[in-house]
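Sample A.
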Amino acid sequence: MIPRTLAVMLTNKCNFYCDHCSVCSGPNVNDVLSDELIMMAIDQCYFIPSIRVVSFTGGEVTLYPEKLKMAIEYAHEKGMLTRIVTNAW
């Protein structure tokens, strides 16, 4: 299998508790990746030619709009496409 997408789980924090959540996210979970770790993951995947899409997921990524914006801009600077996974809150 050839990897095509880097999935970056920015946070486990979410504004909902869903019974079907497979990553144990919720309002009382405060895990969040550092900017440095996000950039390091993107930098490393930049050298894998098949990966040209970065998907930002969580928890709820829109709870950290500045971090999400930074991560999208950084991936864009590397020539990568981006996606977000959100609960559309």
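Sample B, a different protein:
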Amino acid sequence: MGKQNKKSLEIILLIISAILFILIWVNLNQPWIYSFDLLINLKVQNIQNNNLTFFMEKLSYIFEPINCIILLIIISIILWIKKFKKESIFLAFTGIVGGGLIYILKNIIMRIRPQNSIISETGFSFPSGHATIGLILFGCLIYYSIKHLKSRSLKIISVSCSVIFILLIGFSRIYFRVHWFSDVIAGFLLGVFVICLILILQRVMENYRK
């Protein structure tokens, strides 16, 4: 894919993710969203079991938003030391911007979490911080796997594993019933928006320096 096509794709994804996020946001109080959220919330109770709960607990702890942000910053520092300055700045900014947007949006929207959760969580519900940061972390891995890995097999393995982890992190929030389904989808959309935004800003700055 050429540079111009990549740039166009990033802009398209940025616009689509922003529009879909806003559409979910402004319709949160509509009966059709609440009914679907409630249906999913009640359905996951049927698959609840001790082994799955144990696995989801460990997954949720490992990929706590603050842990993922710290991991992104640590990786960015290592990349900076290794002279990969462009990649270092990209990772650091995606983590910081993602964390900042989660905090701001949660406190603006102030959506209440489901009342039948099976673990204790504080704060507001929309968007899901786990889903947002999980997508940012593994979305960056997908981006750099496609960009830098030479082996097609390694690319497929890296992308497949990243997608699986993104979905598992999102599902864990619904499984524990600490988030509504729409919170998780909005979190994924916000993650896509942040990655595309930082990529676009990075290219703008590079062109400005030229």
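Observation for Sample B: The CA atoms of residues 41 and 60 lie 18 Å apart.
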